[in-house]
Amino acid sequence: MSSPSTEYDAESIKQASKSLSGLLGFAQEVLTARSKIQMEMSSGLGVFREQDISGLPGIHLDAEDGAWLRLDRQRTTRPPEPEEHVAEFVADLANDPDKRPELLPAISREVTIEEASDLEEAGLLRSENVRELMEDGKTLKEWVKVTLHVEDFLEVQQGFEAYITGPWARWSEAEKPVRKAIKLYNTLFTLHSAT
């Protein structure tokens, strides 16, 4: 019994080699093009990875209606206000969850002479930080300008620390993912508008 012929003619081998070479060349081009597109996107348009956007508020992946991505528009919120006695010593209550507010080292206030006297008696005002007030070239007799140093106000320092570790920290943690979702929304909207 003879076995099936395993002989190939030279032309068939040449044709198969050419086809294989073409296929490998195509695969190489696809991989090169894919790398180029990712590099171009990462350098300007953005790269959006599922693990980076999954779980952000208003982001729906693989929705039931077949959409692979749906975004609900989010709104920023402002940080909560500290208590009034603390607020006047806060340098800048920025609307930025990554920027922790800071206390001013000192503030100036115009107060009556009686108020200045009470502050000094309570140990909250140093006598060298009291100045006369002038109006129309005349000294005001009932009012003075005082400089209050935060280091003299233990209650303000404690209130600020309670605010930063409490209400502000909770707002910041809740607001950070909202800001990421808004940034994604704006980026995708810009990309969509450019097409």
List keywords for this structure.
195 residues, alpha+beta, three-stranded antiparallel β-sheet, two-stranded antiparallel sheet, 5 helices, 16% strand
What features would you describe in this structure?
By secondary structure, this protein is of the alpha+beta class. It has helices spanning about 10-45, 50-55, 85, 115-120, 155-195; strands spanning about 60, 70, 105-110, 130-135, 140-150. The strands form 2 sheets. A 3-stranded antiparallel beta sheet has the order 3-5-4. Strands 1-2 form a two-stranded antiparallel sheet. Strand 4 (about 130-135) and strand 5 (about 140-150) form a beta hairpin. The mean pLDDT is about 85.
State mean pLDDT (0 to 100 scale): 83
How many strands, which pairing sense, and closed or not: the largest β-sheet? 3 strands, antiparallel
Count every beta strand, where a strand is a DSSP E run of 2 or more residues: 5
Order of helices and strands: HHEEHEHEEH
Total helices: the number is: 5
Strand content: 15-25%
Shape: rod-shaped
Protein structure class: alpha+beta
Q: What is the spatial order of strands in the main beta sheet?
A: 3-5-4
Distance between the termini: 69 Å
What percent of residues adopt helix (DSSP H or I)? 40-55%
Runs in which pLDDT lies below 50 for 5 or more consecutive residues are none
Kindly provide the radius of gyration, computed on alpha-carbon positions and rounded to a whole number of angstroms. 35 Å
